[in-house]
Fold:
Amino acid sequence: MTTVRFAPSPTGNLHIGGARTALFNYLFAKHTGGKFILRIEDTDQERSKKEFEINILESMNWLRLDHDELYRQSERMDIYKEYAKRLEDNNSTYKCFCTKDELEQKRKLFEKLKRPYKYDGTCRKLSKEKAEEFKNAGKPFVVRFKMPEEGETVINDLVRGKITFNNKELDDIILERTDGVPTYNFCVVVDDALMKVTHIIRGEDHISNTPRQIQLYKAMGFELPEFAHIPLILASDKTRLSKRAGAAAVTEYQEEGYIPVAVVNFLALLGCSYSATEEIFPLSELIKRFEMKQVNRSPAIFDFTKLDFLNGYYIRQKTEPEIADLVRPFLLKAGITPEENLLLKVVKLEKERLKKLTDIIDSKYFFTDVTEYDPAAFEKHFKDPAKIELFKRYRTEVAALSFTAAELEAFTRSFAEKNGKKLGELVHPVRLALTGKLISPGLFEVMEVLGKEICLKRFDVILSKN
Structure:
């Protein structure tokens, strides 16, 4: 059975790049009828926090990426100790007593020589007797793995093809810290092997770890999985993704008014090609189509315009009551408690314009009084006495109508023509009075939803500003 895993560390909230990795693993598992494991890698006891683990779990749940099995590395320490002992027994590890100062001096020497740093194996040369003497003397030590000093390590990557590393360039990685806590490279190999992970799908920033992990697999007699390193995500200017350019937590996208199906669709397109002509792929369709051969080598570009397009599309696929339920929490957070029937009317008007659920707050004028007006528009439409006089006449005559959109439009066109004005010369000041701005859904539909009493009141309020 195909088995994959997503293995985040709870040292921060689930990042959008991590979510993309989780999604690719999930899609591959479901496409092949396999298993999707979620493994919380919480061996870093200082930085791992329960609230971050909760955030990871809640974010995965929000994205609808349901795991088949859940593990925590902190609950598997005895397993790691067992395999560390096996490596010690087959002479694959050694104790390193080099101090931080000594290691820093070694790094500085490599910098001076303009060579990439690699531990020089000082303690690898120690006799067992000398190492035991240092240990008995209470000298702190880490446990390092003996990398092969000759030959090559080859990764047959499902995305990038054959990648070859000279073993001489691989340093003796640390497997256990001075406090006995096992390290990332060691734990992941033990876990992936015991959990029978068949495919390791992760970001290309892990490529440098892979040859070291392959050697650990071999030393412990484990069968090698297949590796696939997916491309990095870059900003639109092709620089490293920053928070402003999209590198935010999944929960921040949720708070910004994006919906799960749109985020999943968007992430699935980052570095993977499904069709030359289509972009709309709900999760069920992605599962049918996803294959590793479709994943690109080149970096993916984070495009907010595309994300907003997809989000707007999926919002429009929902019924008006469904949209009302989705936008209501954002209105409440903004201090607006919408009446249900009014909210449904507003959703009907705004549905085609919404790109994010938070956009509904731009229409707060339906629910609360207008207290501010676009300054330039107010200056243009409500400072000229002739324009004010025209607006007053409009207010007087429109009060006689029943306030249906069709009737309001017909009357306003007739009023403009009768007074020798273009329609916009009336529409703009009326819209400003009702909304405080010059952009809104259709003016006459807005007037119908607001109703005669509120419209006339707002006309009087803006006239009182002079």
The domain at 3-72+183-233 is CATH 3.40.50.620 (Rossmann fold). The first helix runs from residue 16 to 31. Residues 403 and 448 are 6 Å apart (CA to CA).
